[in-house]
Design a protein that fits this description.
By secondary structure, the protein is mainly β. The protein has two helices and 26 strands. About 3% of the residues have low confidence.
């Protein structure tokens, strides 16, 4: 009888431990403060902490935020019930240096198809590559199903940095994502590999017939643009049908680029940055015929962590602005553009917060959520 009771108690304890691992309270300090921008009085509120490095975020509904952690976990944060749930049947990722579970984005037809897109680092022959994959989520039992690796990129090196990688979509059935040079500079000018490029695919992973390098000898047809050092943000402007990208430079020289199909963005031949080991400039200068110029250069480097184009009404004075998290200089970078795509104003928000700001997401209400490398998530909303 005692043995049977002990067995039952042990099983109950295991169930409790399992529940606690999957479903945990969503911790958040009572941290709220106000800021002003463009005449708007705004409130900044902390909604979660005690996370890993929250690398990507996307809203499944107004109260449910899907979050990737670079350590490999994928979570749902229930903002109404203040609870986080660790999801099951996630892929094996290579967690090494800057590699791990990276970005997440909902398919434009998510409401009907259910597809969720991910980028992550994967080990192939003991080296790392960037992968674009998609899956569907059963929200009743928190299990992913139908995992599909749409592109295991040809970007394999033994370096543990410059994986990229953010995801965005246009309104024509295409998905874009970026891959860094994988720590080997010549890769970015070598079109026989995917490193140092922006990739464009159809939603099912097939190659669009109008990609710029389709049927070109010794050039991978998935490539949309190249000459990139380490893309850390992608955002599509639906109004003007433009693709924006922001990337890390070396010591100085972060770039905001307007991406044009088939174009070469110069790395490492031209750059506005300097070598880490010396005061000398990288490459042969800042300009070369046949290579694109950035729309904006950051000197010193802000170390961008993401990019979104704000399209909501709740923060109306920001509509059409680009926002990037800044890791090194620890702020949110707001960029105002004119209709020609030129930068006419820059604002640096939340410098006093002193946090490495990694990911940005726009909520269904039009609020801006952002994550920090210290494991916190905040939101910016109108002050009531």
């Amino acid at each position: 009888m005692m043995r049977s009771q002990l067995k039952n108690n042990t099983q109950l304890l295991l169930l409790v431990i399992t529940w606690l691992c999957l479903f945990a309270p969503l911790k958040a300090e009572n941290s709220t403060f106000t800021i002003k921008s463009e005449g708007m009085n705004l409130e900044v509120e902390q909604v979660a902490d005690d996370l890993g490095i929250p690398w990507g975020m996307v809203f499944l509904s107004p109260n449910k935020l899907l979050v990737t952690e670079r350590s490999g976990s994928i979570l749902i944060l229930d903002l109404k019930k203040h609870r986080k749930t660790k999801l099951k049947n996630t892929p094996d990722v290579m967690v090494d240096g800057q590699g791990g579970m990276l970005d997440v984005a909902l398919s434009p037809d998510y409401k009907t198809s259910g597809w969720i897109y991910f980028t992550y680092a994967k080990e192939v022959f003991n080296e790392g590559v960037t992968v674009l994959a998609r899956a569907k989520l059963n929200t009743n039992n928190y299990i992913f199903k139908n995992w599909q690796e749409l592109l295991v990129s040809k970007s394999r090196t033994d370096e543990d940095y410059h994986f990229g990688s953010r995801i965005t979509f246009d309104n024509k059935g295409h998905v874009f994502f970026g891959i860094g040079d994988r720590g080997q500079r010549p890769n970015a000018q070598d079109l026989s590999n995917h490193a140092g490029s922006i990739i464009r695919l159809n939603l099912d992973g097939s190659i669009p017939k109008d990609n710029p390098f389709i049927n070109k000898e010794n050039i991978l047809p998935e490539i949309w643009s190249y000459g990139h050092r380490n893309p850390q943000g992608l955002a599509y402007d639906f109004k003007y049908k433009r693709l924006w990208e922001i990337e890390h430079g070396p010591r100085g020289g972060d770039e905001l680029n307007l991406i044009v199909a088939g174009s070469n963005y110069g790395w490492p031949v031209i750059s506005y940055g300097k070598e880490y080991s010396s005061p000398f400039a990288v490459g042969e200068g800042t300009h070369r015929d046949g290579m694109e110029q950035p729309i904006k250069v950051y000197i010193p480097s802000i170390a961008p962590g993401s990019l979104i184009m704000y399209s909501g009404d709740a923060l109306s004075k920001w509509k059409g602005n680009l926002f990037s998290g800044a890791l090194k200089l620890r702020h949110i970078n707001r960029i105002v553009l004119n209709k020609e795509g030129q930068v006419i104003k820059e604002e640096r928000l939340l410098e006093s917060l002193d946090e490495r700001i990694r990911a940005l997401a726009q909520s269904p209400e039009g609020w801006i959520y952002f994550s920090t490398d210290s494991g916190k998530i905040f939101r910016i909303l109108p002050r009531t």
